[in-house]
Specification:
Elements lengths: L15 E3 L18 H10 L3 E6 L5 E6 L2 E3 L2 E5 L5 H8 L2 E6 L4 E12 L2 H15 L11 E13 L3 H4 L1 E4 L3
Antiparallel strand pairs: 1-9, 2-3, 2-6, 4-5, 5-8, 6-7, 7-8, 8-9
Length: 171
């Protein structure tokens, strides 16, 4: 079993780094100082709690804390089948996942979809159980979602302007 966060995905699925566009924040234009992807991935793996944002039917945001795991450049979580998150994702799959520590923030914007692939669930479930013992990632308890990232941002408070980084997945 690969370590949570380690990537078995192809290089084509690795994110490409750049500076975020945020006029007025004084971000340098040079690539010098960009955070490495492994910095962000470490925080995605190690975060215990995450903030999850989905879109309500009236287009208002809905934010809730959740548990989840980051494995092979994907985020996995479960929720109740009748929860607001599940209802929102059935209508609009766009979402945001944020780590718990704002001073070392990692923000992932992506597309969530329920997964029913028993082999995939069996592969990622041990990471969830190890992290949240005695809880299990069990489809009998509610849908399991996979978030495929499209773009991610990192903000390291101690060196905010110099290290602000954006990653994009080209796949």
């Amino acid at each position: 079993m690969a370590r949570a966060g380690s990537s078995t995905k192809s290089a084509a699925e690795s994110p490409v780094s750049s500076r975020p566009v945020a006029l007025g924040y004084g971000f340098p234009s040079a690539a010098e100082g960009l955070l490495p992807w492994k910095w962000a991935e470490k925080r995605l793996v190690e975060s215990h709690n995450y903030w999850f944002v989905s879109v309500r039917p009236d287009d208002a945001p809905h934010a809730m804390p959740i548990w989840g795991i980051w494995v092979d450049q994907r985020f996995y979580f479960s929720t109740g089948g009748k929860s607001r998150k599940a209802k929102n994702l059935a209508r609009n799959r766009k979402c945001v996942v944020c780590t718990e520590k704002a001073h070392e923030a990692v923000i992932v914007e992506g597309i969530a979809a329920p997964i029913n692939d028993k082999k995939l669930i069996a592969r990622v479930a041990p990471y969830y159980h190890k992290k949240y013992t005695p809880w299990k990632l069990d489809p009998k308890m509610g849908p399991i979602f996979e978030v495929r990232p499209q773009v991610a941002f990192a903000m390291y408070e101690k060196k905010f302007a110099e290290t602000a980084t954006k990653w994009e997945w080209k796949s």
